[in-house]
Design goal:
three-stranded mixed beta sheet; transferase; seven-stranded mixed beta sheet; 367 residues; single chain; 52% helix; membrane; alpha/beta; 2 domains; 14 helices; 14% strand; Glyco_trans_2-like; Spore Coat Polysaccharide Biosynthesis Protein SpsA, Chain A; glycosyltransferase
Amino acid sequence: MNDLILLSWFLLGFLIVRTLIALVNAVSRPYLSEATKVDLARVSILVPARNEEKNLPRLLHSLLKLDYPNVEIWVCDDQSTDKTASLLQEWQSKDSRLRFFRGEPLPPSWTGKNFACHQLAQKASGDYLLFVDADISLSPQALQKALAYFRSHRLTLLSIFPQQKMQTTAEKVSVPFMNWALLNLLPLPFVLNMKNPLFAAANGQFMLFSATEYHENQWHEQVKDKHVEDIWIVRRMKQAGKRVAVLLGNQDVYCRMYTSYQEGLQGFSRNVHEFFLGSRLLMVLFWLGLMTAPAVIFLSFGLAGFIVYLFILLLNRLLVAWASRQSVCTSLLFHPLNMFFFTHVMIHNICLAINHTGKWKGRSINI
């Protein structure tokens, strides 16, 4: 058996493994379920916000519509240069549950979001701390469901990847990349059931903690210099034997993450290598496998082998779309463009690493 055929079997096997992972994620239904009655423990909803005047109204509207009465909402205006502060002042005057403050200047060795979250936790008085990003929205039942899931599974952290709402062609090209990578590479039930930090995942857009455990461990301070704080926090938790679960948002947690191709490129390029255990070498090897597999399999096995490969690839994409609650037709149609976007993101990520710096929300960051 020559080297080309061996490579073909490896690439085909890797696709089958990824499809099995996608199947596990699809059939395990990793969503919040209907809530049973829970006592109304106090929840502090904590929002780090830097230059979020466009996103905050949608988030705040959903938070104030929650069917869970015992909440306080704190927003940290993280040195914004837009109209975030004046917008928050207006909303604060309408509802006593909402309060905001201007964050302190960023100290050395901290990233902006970690420092904002650290300050928010110091303000919070709740039994639970829910950190959410300004670009998400919650259904009225989302918090009740999340607390019920948290308690029934005896968790230290519950994190949710929001359902992505996409309106423009540019969003359909860029945004599906995140769930495609997540659901191809990580069986979500393993995050809860495996202690190995290899199975670490989280999304900083929605992270629910026990306040007692958070204050004892100061999770954001532990990873204060990390730009992908969510994954690093889970790695620390797993090393400490804590229980973590990761779900998909379905209709309960959703967002319009990026509204343009350029926003998606800048956002994903900061940390795409973290999908591959923080290794850019693994990222490039993964990309090479994706790009070369069709030609290599065709040369080794002919048209019949190529058709088998294509069928499994389509099944993989269908399963990811189904689990993500995305349009199957749109997902299949845009898959080649999603792979082009991944290529662009990977190249940009490597360029940022070579230069050791990038920009995010007007701040320079080390990559």
